[in-house]
Amino acid sequence: MKKSPTSTPHDAVFKTFLRHPDTARDFLNIHLPHSLRIRCDLTTLKLAPDSFIEKNLRAFYSDVLWSLKTCEGDGYIYVVIEHQSTPDAHMAFRLMRYATAAMQRHLDAGHKTLPLVIPMLFYHGAKSPYPFSLCWLDEFDDPALARQLYATAFPLVDITVVPDNEIMQHRRIAMLELVQKHIRQRDLMGLVERLAVLLITGNANDSQLKALFNYLLIQHGSTPRFGKFIREVARRVPQHKERLMTIVDRIRESGRRKGKREGVQQGVQQGIHQGKQEEALRIAHTMLEQGIEREMVLMITGLSDEEIKAKRH
Fold this sequence. Notes:
By secondary structure, the protein is an alpha+beta fold. It is built from 16 helices and 4 strands. It has 3 domains: 142 residues, no CATH class; 94 residues; 51 residues. It has a 4-stranded mixed β-sheet with strand order 1-2-3-4, with helices on both faces. The N terminus is likely disordered. Belongs to the Rpn/YhgA-like nuclease family.
């Protein structure tokens, strides 16, 4: 059950004492484990402001948060002292949640490394001794597995170092992995064969294909060979040609409504704003030669059909 920051007389008197620097210094000097105390410069104790505590956590804690420097002077340590008069089976997790919130606020303040946050629980309940573990990993159904997960580096899928041949064996996720691995390449033509093979397997549905080609269009739609890339993929998978071109048509129609592609827009608009009509016409003819639809060229360049035709003659 939630409690207000000072919901009981116990909380109020606790905070009154522990918010005093000399009192807090004595408390920490007496109760901090030796291995931690020798790292703390207790002369640098500084009470953290209320604003440091996240609003959504204030209702859970009758806490006092102190910051201090390490004895080596090369880092920060926070000590959160929580008061509790009734045992809570999830107290360890609550303290861990509070500790990570304090770490985040420390980073938000501009620091580059995480601080050590030491959660301490001050308990004086009717039930004695305190009945629950204060190791948050013990709260899991499988504490051993939790320790294995949270005491080591998290799983990393770095697709940039996975060989393409291996990616091709990844079934339904292969298409996404292949495209995102190579999305920053200037030219996608090297993906045509592999992408065609994956399309033939039929592991992607229509919505996934639409999302994938929309992604490709956003990232590469303004590049000269994107139209050729789409046509080459469609040519290699004739059973999907109609579906692919329909998807591309839909994406292009949506693109007309949403606006111009940034790369093309910048060059064209700059030329138009500077009164360079010839530059706009040159770009328009280049786009037409590359297979970009006439309506899209007119919309992007701002030229009329008559202006483009007149230039050709």
